[in-house]
Amino acid sequence: MNQFQAYFNTGIHHVLNIYAFHHILFIAVLCAIYLLRDWKKLLVLATGFTVGHLIALGIAILNLFSISNNLVNFLIPILILITAFFNILKPRPSSGNSIQANYVFALFYGLIHALGYSNYLRGKFGSGTAIIEPMLGFNLGVEVGQLAVVGILILLSSILIGLLGVNRKEWALVLSSLVMGMAIMMVLDARYW
Q1: 3-state DSSP assignment of residue 134
Q2: Contact yes or no for 36/158 (Cβ under 8 A)
Q3: For the chain, which residues make up each domain, given as ranges?
Q4: How far apart are CA 105 and CA 107, in angstroms?
């Protein structure tokens, strides 16, 4: 297996790792207000996260900026909590071309999340031009993993709303409230900060 493939697989595992479920929670709360017909918006959200992730990993791995892991571990559930709260306030996506807060949250979450993961990757990637292939592989793996989670969540939403007749607003409120509750537990759990 070449280096690109190894980091690509690491990126996918990073998202789908059940022991690091905060990533899945954030994707779930981002997807809570969208339906299958909103697939373009969801693609932009997932890519926004990945862009933030890539920028922050590059900055951190090149030692241009660092942040305490304790602060990152505190900010991650806070961002999940804030995103869930915004969904509860506005359980449907905006119409038209306006930029919704979730796009900003996705980019910022990607930035914060990558800063926390960068200490681990800094040792694996090394420095200099040798980091380009691993970073590209890792971030493409993250994107594929996120799109898999998005696909599963949108399929579930489509079944619940389209086939079983669950109210769209109620689904968004229930899913966002569940994620909010889990994020509160993460904030209160000393392991996360």
Answers
A1: helix
A2: yes
A3: 1-14+67-91+98-193
A4: 6
